[in-house]
């Protein structure tokens, strides 16, 4: 086998950084409609994958292990600092329960979708379903964290990224178009008209501005993002281990998540810059996963994985509708709740702006709740898929 052209950790990191920043630059500079259907995430994963599988980038490097051990825990802590559980529950009320019904749909839909297609996948592909569950409950950061905790292969992670995006380009238009069904849906769920007026008033009072970002804030965030993952790793080593699911890696991710949520209840949540830094590191980590992936054999598995994902999303949608019916919630809140799960913080504001611009702030808060529960739900979904796989 020929030696890859770029093997230096610094060189690899430079290329991954260039790819990650380059596609966001293209999206912003060109405004190509292509990015409306295939977001930068897909290209940020695919470009390093192509480079590593064509002998340009090394697909094995100490850099990749370092990013798993240091960068992933760092962005998880920073990402969770923005979670505002109390504010979201106060404003959205019953809408939060619809989102949780959607989350249940993701957890229960995973083993159903996997059962339907497991004969066309590898025995360990249930880990890819677990990673995708992280994305569909929280976001890309949760997908990366679940993948790390479960030991998902780079190839199955690639299938999860592919399914995430292919389902997204079908599901997002459905959520947007649901606005046209507002009157009929609201009659079906018997929603109180005063609820929508209350949402608009309450959401208008929300503010997420933290003030200007300064040098000291970066130091604060580095301390929190390094110290608490170190503490989580220590605590994980003290926990009981079980086969496949509750490993030291899984406990580590769960402890990081728990500590991050607890930090969000302290004044640390007011530190500026946590969210953009976290998101930047998430995309860099996705590029790292792409560089490690081996594409051999993926073409045969992709159709089965996608079929399972579409069965899965249908179950999620049915659970959202059931939740809306039980709690008498309007179509706007229901669509936002689903977008907060499936699309995360990137899609929830888009759906909210289309349905009712006044609901954009609360849609962001709902997506952040997905961050908080995404890792717990992903491991639950993975466990159910593992049972199906046996």
Descriptive report:
This protein has 390 residues and is mainly α. It has a domain at 84-205 and 214-269 and 298-389. Helix content is 76%, strand content 0%. The chain has helices at residues 9-30, 34-37, 40-53, 62-80, 85-92, 94-117, 126-137, 140-150, 154-177, 182-189, 193-204, 215-236, 248-264, 274-292, 298-327, 331-342, 348-355, 360-389. α6 packs antiparallel against α7 and α7 packs parallel to α9 (154-177). The protein is globular. The mean pLDDT is 86.
Fold blueprint:
Elements: H1 9-30, H2 34-37, H3 40-53, H4 62-80, H5 85-92, H6 94-117, H7 126-137, H8 140-150, H9 154-177, H10 182-189, H11 193-204, H12 215-236, H13 248-264, H14 274-292, H15 298-327, H16 331-342, H17 348-355, H18 360-389
Helix pairs in contact: 1-3, 1-14, 3-9, 3-14, 4-8, 4-12, 4-13, 4-14, 5-18, 6-7, 6-15, 6-16, 6-18, 7-8, 7-9, 7-18, 8-13, 8-18, 9-15, 9-16, 12-13, 13-18, 15-16, 16-17, 16-18, 17-18
Quick structural gist:
The protein is mainly α and 390 residues long. Helix content is 76%, strand content 0%.
């Amino acid at each position: 086998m020929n030696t890859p052209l770029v093997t230096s950790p610094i060189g690899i990191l430079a290329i991954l950084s260039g790819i990650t920043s380059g596609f966001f630059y293209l999206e912003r500079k060109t405004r190509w409609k292509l990015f409306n259907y295939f977001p930068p995430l897909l290209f940020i994963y695919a470009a390093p994958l192509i480079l590593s599988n064509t002998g340009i980038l090394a697909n094995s490097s100490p850099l990749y292990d370092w990013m798993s051990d240091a960068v992933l825990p760092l962005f998880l802590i920073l990402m969770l600092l923005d979670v505002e559980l109390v504010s979201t529950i106060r404003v959205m009320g019953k809408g939060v329960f619809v989102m949780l019904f959607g989350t249940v749909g993701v957890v229960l839909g995973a083993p159903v979708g996997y059962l339907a297609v497991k004969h066309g996948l590898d025995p360990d592909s249930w880990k890819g379903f677990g990673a995708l569950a992280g994305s569909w409950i929280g976001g890309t950061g949760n997908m990366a964290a679940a993948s790390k905790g479960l030991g998902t292969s780079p190839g199955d992670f690639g299938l999860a990224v592919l399914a995430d995006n292919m389902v997204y380009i079908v599901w997002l238009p459905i959520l947007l178009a649901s606005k046209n069904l507002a009157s009929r849906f609201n009659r079906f769920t018997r929603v109180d008209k005063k609820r929508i007026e209350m949402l608009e008033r309450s959401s208008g009072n929300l503010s997420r501005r933290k003030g200007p970002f300064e040098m000291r804030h970066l130091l604060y965030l580095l301390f929190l993002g390094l110290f608490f993952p170190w503490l989580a790793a220590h605590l994980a080593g003290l926990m009981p281990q079980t086969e496949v699911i509750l490993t030291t890696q899984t406990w580590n991710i769960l402890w990081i998540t728990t500590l991050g949520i607890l930090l969000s209840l302290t004044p640390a949540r007011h530190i500026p810059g946590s969210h953009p830094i976290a998101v930047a590191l998430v995309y860099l980590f996705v590029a790292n996963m792409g560089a490690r992936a081996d594409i051999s054999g993926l073409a045969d598995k992709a159709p089965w994985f996608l079929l399972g994902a579409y069965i899965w999303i249908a179950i999620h949608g049915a659970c959202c509708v059931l939740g809306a019916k039980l709690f008498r919630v309007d179509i706007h809140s229901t669509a936002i709740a689903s977008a907060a799960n499936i699309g995360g913080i990137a899609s929830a504001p888009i759906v909210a702006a289309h349905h009712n611009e006044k609901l954009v702030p609360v849609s962001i808060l709902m997506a952040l709740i997905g961050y908080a529960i995404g890792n717990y739900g992903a491991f639950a979904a993975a466990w159910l898929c593992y049972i199906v796989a046996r």
